[in-house]
Amino acid sequence: MAFQKAVKGTILVGGGALATVLGLSQFTHYRRKQVNLAYVEAAECVSEPVNREPPSREAQIMSLQNTSEFDILVIGGGATGSGCALDAVTRGYTGLKTALVERDDFSSGTSSRSTKLIHGGVRYLQKAIMKLDIEQYRMVKEALHERANLLEIAPHLSAPLPIMLPIYKWWQLPYYWVGIKLYDLVAGSNCLKSSYVLSKSRALEHFPMLQKDKLVGAIVYYDGQHNDARMNLAIALTAARYGAATANYMEVVSLLKKTDPQTGTERVSGARCKDVLTGQEFDVRAKCVINATGPFTDSVRKMDNKDAAAICQPSAGVHIVMPGYYSPESMGLLDPATSDGRVIFFLPWQKMTIAGTTDTPTDITNHPIPSEEDINFILNEVRNYLSCDVEVRRGDVLAAWSGIRPLVTDPKSADTQSISRNHVVDVSESGLITIAGGKWTTYRSMAEDTINAAIKTHNLKAGPSRTVGLFLQGGKDWSPTLYIRLVQDYGLESEVAQHLATTYGDKAFEVAKMASVTGKRWPVVGVRLVSEFPYIEAEVKYGIKEYACTAVDMISRRTRLAFLNVQAAEEALPRIVELMGRELNWDDYKKEEELETAKKFLYYEMGYKSRSEQLTDRSEISLMPSDIDRYKKRFHKFDEDQKGFITIVDVQRVLESINIQMDENTLHEILNEVDLNKNGQVELNEFLQLMSAIQKGRVSGSRLAILMKTAEENLDRRVTIPVDRSCGGL
């Protein structure tokens, strides 16, 4: 009864606010519909893509070199830069002649290291209402429109996701209910599904691992979720199909300038580019140059004008990935007020659980590293919301990464110290156009604003933007049942088929055609790169067609292995390098270089270093005396000779005695994980350090610990029968 009264009371609490926002929301929605008529009109007269498939990287570089002058040159291959290229090349009947260059790989920076949400921003709406901030309201409204569009144009890469907001105090129920209902209301016709209230018992049914003490109930609302790196790549590939000359690993070393004959002033007229893979340099000329480099915005601005004031204020956001059992398969969680006032999301993603993010000032770097402090902060916040029955262990962090969010100040604003809540389009005196700030969800509208500014500033001839409703690569002929055809037509495992369908969309058939025969009765084709993930070898070959040039490209952005499990990614690396080497004609030296570079990437940027430091030769042994005795007995079942250490030979002997077969290379890998001083053997002290770290939750899933426990249990079950009772002997 009290629960129902609280819900009913919210109608009175929020009535005035609802009415106010309703009027503003409906007016804005009306204006949006009028603008959309122009979009539809423009879209009807635009031709199909120039290329059925994106041209090869070599062909794209030839286009960059041989084109006398482009209309638009975009610097930066993240979501915003790729969005700018797609917007420009699809304008009007023929589009603008467009080029895009990226120093690293497409989506190698912030765009692949997000929270994976497509959202308007509940917290921004809260601030907009509490502070009567019309700018934040417009940003939320715009983001909600863009959310709906992105879910429509890339249905294979995105989907609505219900997110639970648990309530632990009665007074919070009406407060948050009003806020979430306003979020639905502002979305208008773009509302994915209506939010709803759950009782305590229903909340625990949906999210059984939730902390139940003092739980009042929960509110569930809907936002979108996507595969961010693949989404970014789809935008870039679509731009390439429409005729944009796009090239990754193409660094801008300087800007070109020429004197305007009418004004006598210097104008930016292109860029000097360097192929990072070959070292070749050449000029790319363009009427307009767009700086869409995210955190590196100021470095390009200073190429134009060395005295340009810095406008980027970088902030690091760390995320961690944990096993899928930490969250329901189709329900996320929002912590709206952490211990230090931040917001933490706890979301299912790719059958794992992603948690984040932090928000701390940082230096700009090409290789951001997640700190142990930030990882532990997220873990502590997760512990606050999960049941005490669920032990949140440091060892369950399978991957961790840091992304640099490029917060910006508006150089045209009177208050240059104030961070802009929205994106900023700036035009320098020499005509360089900079797009900065904003968020992943609004990449398309940011690109539209940028190209509009380019057309106006440089007197380019082009029609209106037509990217609303324009399908991205793989989206047009995708359907939720497409994976069934992959299973039936090619003999793929159902899990693999679903993965291919939700990664490549209608292009999944091309990947399936390249899949290797397994030699088994089932599946017929589709050799996996690593057993516990649905990635197959054919994706490596297809990834090269998608401009993958390095092993890092493959494990982090063509597949998402590095973001899901660093150990699994490391396990798959040798085969990935072998397959890429075969396709790209790498010699042995190049293969070894790629392998080491990828391992370094996993170690520093994807949290492997932080994970490995949970067990070192300096780790303390904090065990009860009874536990020490128990683990010593287990150890001595392998160390029969009382040497004080065990080797591969000792482990093989015990395994053979209980009829378990394991190849020597695998055993070597297993022992190497615990061999802290790297002398080829596991000493008693190292084993006790391992068991202590496991008890504290710093290490989980140790293959040696599980193997030794299993072997001990098997040995203990073998009871020796005395001769006088065995019916034997004479």
UniProtKB/TrEMBL annotation:
Subcellular location: Mitochondrion
Single GO BP term: glycerol-3-phosphate shuttle
Known pathway: Polyol metabolism; glycerol degradation
This protein's record includes keyword Nucleus: no
Reactions it catalyzes: a quinone + sn-glycerol 3-phosphate = dihydroxyacetone phosphate + a quinol
Domain EF-hand stretches: 626-661, 662-697
Required cofactor names: FAD
Entry's EC annotation: 1.1.5.3
Keyword terms: Calcium, FAD, Flavoprotein, Metal-binding, Mitochondrion, Oxidoreductase, Phosphoprotein, Repeat, Transit peptide
GO MF entry, a single one: glycerol-3-phosphate dehydrogenase (quinone) activity
Coiled coil start-end: none
SMART domains xrefs: EFh
Role according to the record: Calcium-responsive mitochondrial glycerol-3-phosphate dehydrogenase which seems to be a key component of the pancreatic beta-cell glucose-sensing device.
PANTHER family, sorted: GLYCEROL-3-PHOSPHATE DEHYDROGENASE, GLYCEROL-3-PHOSPHATE DEHYDROGENASE, MITOCHONDRIAL
Protein name: Glycerol-3-phosphate dehydrogenase
Protein species of origin: Otolemur garnettii (Small-eared galago)
